[in-house]
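Give me the 3D structure for Sigma 54-interacting transcriptional regulator.
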Amino acid sequence: MPSILIIDDEDNYLELCRRYMPEHSFLPPARNYRETAAALRRYAGQVDLVLLDVHFNIPDAELLPHDKQPLLARGGDPGKVFERLRRSQGLYILDQIRQSHPDLPVIVMTSRDDLPLEADAERLRAEDYTYLLADDYLDARALKLQIDGILAQRERHVAAASEPFYWGNSAAMIGLRRRLGILARGRLPVIIQGATGTGKSLVAREFIHPRSERAGPFVAVDLSTLPNDLMAAHLFGVVKGAYTGATSSREGVLARAHGGTLFLDEIGNLGLELQKSLLLVLQEGAYRPIGATKELQTDIKLVVATNENLAAMVRAGRFREDLYMRLNPATAVTLPGLRDRRDDFQELLEWFMRRVTAEAYNRDLLAQYAEQRGLPAPGPNDNLAVTVGRSIPPRGDARRMHVLLHPSSFKLLQEFDWPGNFRQFEMTLSNLLTFTLVDLVDRPERIEPEDLGEAGRPDIIPILPRTVSDLLRPMTAPTASEAPVEEVAADGAELARLAIVVRPGDSLNAVSCAVERQYLEHLYERCLGDLGKMGEILLNDAGAGRKIQLRMNQLGIKLRRLKRRADG
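Predicted structure for Sigma 54-interacting transcriptional regulator (568 residues):
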């Protein structure tokens, strides 16, 4: 049940709300700012919404601001000064709440004759106030509509923050989420379609499996990483002596996933013979390990994913039609790519920015930045506020750090094609935040005053267009086949000395990190340990050596070991 704090020197609003809104829980009211601050401390994390009166008929000593001398020094009748403070006391309390609890929704309640709110419009958001009409029924109805709307939005935000996948508020995505929830509870297989990086495995693991209400484990297999001759043993298991080298029995993923969910990624890579075996599993609930004489029973929720068109593969003879029909194609779902979600792009950006902010390395850099700027270090649950524009709204908490994304930076990100979809997007945002923080911590003189939007605001972390361009440029560079022949020839001898080694079965992310790690180690040796030269080659910036070093640290590259190897 949502908890609401009423700040009012009288009980009128409390009685009104309790009478007409019994579905909500109302905390003991606060009569002034001192009691408000105490209540917010006492009920920390429990207050969902604040209802705030404007006019407070309280003693002079209880009025904000605490230091009233500047107001009294302007002259005039002290009695009139205090009367004005009483008539607008709620707005002073609102300022304090916004500084200490910037994300806590507040509804300011006032009558039309109580205060000319237009004079204080810059202190209020559109949803922050409601005019009351001295009619209990109408006032309660207006408040209830506003309270229910704000609490519903807050609930959606909390739910979205806890989800591993951002669904958004569009009708299509809400419908997709509901459809997946229904399919998760059924016994039939689920087909998830979508391009690389759209979150197919994430949805299977974190959304479908928990809602299937199965007690068994979630087991995932990326079929694109398995050699054809090992695929059968990996799926069905093998008994000792089944073939040369089978010195012991090994259970397959069908056994490990018993009672739970089996996720087969890139189902199109399954050979035709194994497709027949999988069909028998779906028809009979049984399978036979390699070399076994008896069948074993299995009970699984099967989820398959593909970035190919299975119907087209059936027509081409590459996928069995009977298996395709058993996979329940009528209910297949397609996860949209990032380019198809332009309408909620800003919300996606904010959601992923919160994720990358929580990364340990970026959290350490934020703590360094906060210490340099005299700001409190962000807590484990504190998120950066993300603003698109050239300035942060002045009502924000000056102690809370904000990411300021210039409109041109936002446009660059929004218009990029993102072939790697959300995986590529998240990695890019993580690099953007890391590179920006390194620049601010190590070389603050490179940030021009106009880049800050509001010069002198230490709480602003500006992500500049040039940083975005530098990170996006390599992803839009021409391939080797498109590059001029003389460039390929000039670099060919050097590149031929670098042999990249990857392990079969590794995830795409692990392979990507392995390639980057080996390339940076090779480049470090080629540049004789000169990080500045590496920065010039990779980022066209000889002063970016610290960035290169930080990235190498992130990848687990030990520079001391490389240096000893180079010296030896």
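The longest helix spans residues 136-162. Let me know if you want a second pass.
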